Queue: 3 jobs
Job 1
Amino acid sequence: MSDSPGQQFFQKHMGYLMSGDLHTMLQDQYAEDAILITPFDILDVPPPHIIHAGPAMEDFFRKWLDYHGAMTLDSLYDFAELDDSISFQALITSQTGKWVLGEAWHLANGKIDRHYGFAHKLD
């Protein structure tokens, strides 16, 4: 992966996730009024979920990490970026199996203000 601004942002994001430093990730990379839209079925209500920045978003990411446990990024593909957007697809393996994840992040002032997530379990 080259060193474009979007790829640097992605690498930093992955570092936060892998270290579990969600509070800093949200402060550093998400706007105060950010919204996450995700189909991931890990909450007490059925998806899709619309999650607002703050404690609810940190709680969602914590549950997402706990659900997956240790994971590997098997491949990253279809990575695209504009000045205000980053999108990609990834294949991950976790304790729950293999997943194809898709992400689209809209940025305002260098922070994610809209995070669209997509997921499909392969096995």
Note: The first strand starts at residue 30 and ends at 38.
Job 2
Amino acid sequence: MLMAVEPQPHNRVNGSTPHIPPLVRSRKQRVTITLPVALLERLRNAVYWTGHGTLARLIADSLDDAVAQMEQANGEPFPQRLAQLKRGRPRTKNCSAPTLAASITPEPDQ
């Protein structure tokens, strides 16, 4: 499910709106993805030890870098899509991908 998230303006004491650079004002959408548990733990450790900000910011910055590298290898930005992407994950006969919930739920003590 994709949802648009509009930034809320924060007013100063005198009621004026502070100047926010255009990059901070960019629209955002929520995207739900499934990541391997080991990668998610590495990302969390990187955020914790580097003070990078939030997990979401680290993921967004990393994806931005990856797409920039892909565009550079392509020689130019990719053209706009001609159709929407198919939603959901591909269906296969024997697909048992680990879920994000598995990485959040602690295992019981034995």
Note: Strands lie at 3-5, 28-30.
Job 3
Amino acid sequence: MFEDSRHFVVEVSPNLRRELLALKKIKIQWSMYRVEDFVAVTRCLKSLGFRQTAKFCQKQQNYSICAGDQYWKDCDSKQSIRCANCCKANTYIHEKNKKTNINHSVFSKECSRLCRIEALIISKSDY
């Protein structure tokens, strides 16, 4: 049935959604699958920011490796991965102990900015 599949996206009622998320895993046929919300985050592939696309972006180009404005092939700091979104967020945070970790890719599931945007989308969804 699902031989080549890795992900399933299923639309369910709000009550069933809560029950499935509480289970964390479900069994389909003879395999166990992790259950999580599917959240589509609009992302600009130019600035790597959220809530817009590159077509309408007026911001500076950023790259996913070092958060700099050079093309990723020209980046000389490939060993130091930095998240452009967390770097930008830290410029608004003045207390050092409240600054977020920047040592991850902008596409990482560990990105606190991405997690915050996903949580915001979920909170505004009408379940």
Note: The longest helix spans residues 112-124.
